[in-house]
TrEMBL record:
Keywords: Membrane, Transmembrane, Transmembrane helix
Residues that span the membrane, as ranges: 139-157, 199-221, 251-272, 292-316, 322-348
Lineage: Bacteria, Bacillati, Actinomycetota, Actinomycetes, Micrococcales
Highest taxon above the source species: Bacteria
Protein's organism: Cellulomonas fimi (strain ATCC 484 / DSM 20113 / JCM 1341 / CCUG 24087 / LMG 16345 / NBRC 15513 / NCIMB 8980 / NCTC 7547 / NRS-133)
Protein name in UniProt: Uncharacterized protein
Length: 382
């Protein structure tokens, strides 16, 4: 079995006996056709166009090109589901009827499926941003920037094959046999699991960044919580207002105490985690149906972007630009995660075959299940 989708150059029509310049021109005009249709029949269409144009033609004439554009759009419309169902699939990830399984396979095998999937899943961010923009444009821009960073980190850290297999399980299993544009079929492949070591290293670096940045912000931010009496219908009620005021020494002492308590809690949880891992790691079951894979190379960029976002948010709070006061919660939480993560990394550093999901299950006190494989789109071996 060889990987099928997203691993070969796509949409290149090379036809023997046809001039490369004419083939490139024809390929540009036929972009209106669905990708699967082009991969299955594109070379035949280019050969016919070359025969009709003559041996000296170097490009498709405009009239023929416009006809190809119209036919391609009609084919794209007729080969897919109705627009209400298509919008539901693209925006809400709803399932389609089995009659459109080939259309779904064409979508899943696109080399840029992961990117388009991330873009399509970003639409819920538009509504809250639009609502905020009507009253507080700067806040809306900050929210939009935060959502863009989160989405970018998720996109960079996600593995294309993992995203595709998740979609295969949702949209094609169970279902009728279907063949993709390059011969891809739904087969039972080995379950892909992220290796624990690189994931723990990235999480530990992010937790360390958050612990330092948020703890410093908690000590330096000029934000205090104050309650004021607000009149309402003749009665007096208590409301909470957040303002930027000079931080007194008593507040700093409270913050230091909270951070110290978080550190103690982290050390206690780290001892519990160490005991659980020492007991569970040597007795992990064999996993013949599993494939332990490292994170994608772009995951490093995602972790760096997340760390920069944490530092930027903490700095904004430290200077009083951001008055949300997340550092009071984020600083202690990162300290706890840092201590537990350090102990966990030390426990598994000698075994590169341990999956991250196994570590999570052991820390949660759950049994490690044996993976039996998962459906995937691939070209079956001959």
């Amino acid at each position: 079995m060889t990987p099928g989708p997203g691993t070969r150059p796509a949409d290149r029509v090379v036809v023997p006996g046809v001039a490369p310049a004419f083939a490139r021109s024809a390929a540009r005009w036929t972009r209106a056709y669905p990708r699967g249709w082009r991969l299955r029949r594109g070379h035949e269409l280019v050969a016919v166009l070359a025969d009709l144009a003559g041996p000296d033609a170097t490009r498709v004439d405009v009239r023929t090109g416009l006809g190809l554009l119209r036919s391609g759009l009609v084919t794209r419309h007729r080969s897919g589901p109705p627009w209400p169902s298509r919008v539901g699939y693209l925006l809400l990830d709803t399932t389609l009827s089995d009659r459109y399984a080939t259309w779904v396979v064409d979508d899943l095998t696109s080399p840029r499926y992961r990117m388009w999937r991330a873009v399509r899943s970003s639409w819920p961010a538009v509504l809250p941003t639009a609502i905020l923009a009507t009253g507080d444009a700067p806040a809306a821009l900050r929210l939009l920037g935060l959502l863009v960073v989160v989405q970018a980190v998720a996109l960079l850290a996600s593995h294309p094959e993992t995203v595709r297999r998740r979609a295969v399980r949702r949209h094609l299993v169970p279902g009728p046999p279907v063949v993709g544009p390059r011969g891809e079929q739904v087969v039972l492949g080995r379950t892909r699991r992220l290796a624990a070591l690189p994931v723990l290293r990235g999480c530990l670096a992010l937790a360390a960044t958050g612990a330092v940045a948020w703890s410093a912000a908690a000590l330096l931010a000029p934000v205090t919580w104050s309650t004021t009496a607000c009149p309402a219908d003749g009665a007096v009620v208590t409301c909470t207002d957040v303002g930027t005021a000079p931080r007194g020494p008593d507040v700093s002492a409270v913050v230091v105490a909270v951070l110290a308590v978080a550190l103690v809690v982290g050390l206690v949880l780290a001892a519990v985690a160490r005991r659980a891992l020492r007991r569970g790691l040597p007795s992990l079951p064999g996993q013949p149906g599993r494939e332990v894979v490292p994170p994608v190379p772009t995951a490093v960029t995602g972790w760096v972007a997340a760390a920069l976002g944490v530092v930027a948010a903490a700095a904004a709070e430290a200077v009083g630009t951001w008055t949300l006061s997340l550092s009071v919660l984020a600083g202690p939480a990162c300290l706890v995660l840092l201590t537990v993560g350090a102990v966990t990394l030390a426990a598994v550093r000698d075994d590169a075959t341990v999956a991250f999901v196994d570590v999570v299950r052991l820390l949660a006190g759950r049994d490690v299940a044996v993976d039996e494989g998962e459906p995937a789109l691939a070209v079956p071996s001959a």
